[in-house]
């Protein structure tokens, strides 16, 4: 049996790849998990629901605001200090064999505590451009798993530890009750901008079927008036729908792109350009370069442009599904290091 402490949350984009790794590890060996969730965020809710067997501890932290000298960061830094003491207490008691971290501020807290206690650290970065937590933790990690070859350019000092694996995707046996539709989604929090654009697209494309994850009950009601649209406030598990989709329209969060690539669904990406260091734009451009996507910049995203691009991606057709889930590569690497 191995004991694993894990953190990576605040958004679905960090959480789902982490769950994919833990679920794959559990298929290979007996695993006991201590999960550090961000209080009040998606990780708390999803982990308690999907993995009641994990020991889940909620930690009250928020990320540092940019620019880093933002006045509110003084208070946030103090909270990070308190959280670190709490995390250390749990780690000392649980005595994990390793820590798996997938980014976000909670990873930073858990990673630095684990480093002080000499616990082996494994990190995964989902995006092309690494976030602050992964940049800091790479120096202490045993291995740094990355989704894209290009990420090496941002972590030059740690080349020997980097393994390009791709971004883990959660598996599901479930199947959506529909088929041959265009899947529309924001990130794990939905996207007002995409909802507004698509509301203008739907009446123009009555022959095309859409499934739209709206992010709110109000939007679900508003978009349900279109006969060609199945509007859902949140889709769970998303894999059930990716399997049956012919194309997608979304933001350019790393997990959404990972799922497009894993399930072989070509798509339109409208990156959220205010994301830290424009990382969504970099993700989107990489997905386009790899042949999975058409990128529409926010300032050019009109209903007309989307309609033209839907036609192109649908005509392109499905791409071959990935043979091996990156989660499986990562599990093998981790077990190879510690067993
Ligand atoms: C707003 C924000 O900070 N976004 C970041 C966040 O991910 P954010 O959660 O916004 O976006 P991602 O695309 O990475 O992940 C979304 C995840 O939510 C799932 N989903 C979505 C809708 C739904 O109804 N059901 C469902 O399960 C998707 O299948 C996917 O697994 O972390 C990512 C990884 O570091 C970054 O690339 C994103 O830029």
Explain the overall architecture.
It is an enzyme of class 2 (transferase). Belongs to the glycosyltransferase 28 family. MurG subfamily. It is found in: Cell inner membrane. The chain is an alpha/beta fold. It folds into 2 domains: 182 residues, Glycogen Phosphorylase B (Rossmann fold, 3-Layer(aba) Sandwich), CATH 3.40.50.2000; 133 residues, Glycogen Phosphorylase B (Rossmann fold, 3-Layer(aba) Sandwich). Helices cover 40% and strands 18% of the residues. It has a 7-stranded parallel sheet, sandwiched between helices. The protein has a 6-stranded parallel sheet with strand order 10-9-8-11-12-13. Helix 3 crosses helix 4 and helix 6 crosses helix 11. The radius of gyration is 20 Å and the shape is globular. Uridine-diphosphate-N-acetylglucosamine binds next to helix 1, helix 9 and helix 10.
């Amino acid at each position: 049996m191995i004991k694993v402490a894990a953190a990576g949350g605040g958004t679905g984009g960090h959480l789902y790849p982490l769950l994919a790794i833990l679920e794959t590890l559990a298929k290979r060996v007996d695993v006991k998990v201590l999960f550090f969730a961000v209080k009040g965020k998606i990780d708390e809710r999803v982990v308690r629901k999907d993995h009641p067997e994990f020991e889940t501890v909620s930690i009250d932290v928020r990320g540092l605001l940019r620019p880093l000298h933002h006045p509110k960061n003084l208070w946030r830094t103090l909270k990070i200090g308190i959280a670190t003491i709490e995390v250390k207490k749990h780690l000392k008691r649980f005595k994990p064999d390793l820590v798996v971290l997938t980014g976000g501020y909670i990873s930073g807290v858990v990673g630095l505590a684990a480093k002080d206690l000499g616990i082996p650290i494994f990190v995964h970065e989902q995006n092309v451009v690494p976030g602050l937590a992964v940049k800091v933790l790479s120096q202490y990690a045993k291995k740094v798993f990355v989704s894209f070859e290009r990420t090496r350019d941002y972590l030059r000092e740690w080349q020997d530890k980097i393994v390009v694996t791709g971004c883990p995707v959660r598996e599901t046996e479930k199947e959506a009750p529909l088929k041959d539709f265009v899947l529309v989604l924001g990130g794990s929090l939905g996207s007002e901008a995409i909802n507004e654009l698509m509301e203008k697209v739907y009446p123009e494309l009555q022959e095309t079927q859409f499934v739209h994850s709206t992010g709110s009950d109000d939007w679900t009601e508003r978009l349900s008036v279109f006969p060609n649209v199945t509007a859902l406030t949140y889709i769970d598990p998303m894999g059930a729908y990716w399997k049956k989709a012919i194309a997608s329209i979304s933001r350019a969060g790393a997990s959404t792109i990972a799922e497009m690539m894993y399930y072989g669904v070509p798509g339109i990406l409208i990156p959220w350009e205010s994301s830290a260091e424009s990382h969504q734009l970099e993700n989107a451009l990489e997905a386009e370069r790899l042949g999975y996507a058409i990128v529409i910049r926010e300032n050019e995203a009109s209903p007309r442009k989307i309609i033209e691009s839907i036609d192109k991606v649908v005509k392109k057709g499905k791409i071959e599904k990935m043979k091996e889930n990156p989660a499986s590569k990562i599990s093998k690497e981790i077990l190879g290091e510690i067993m």
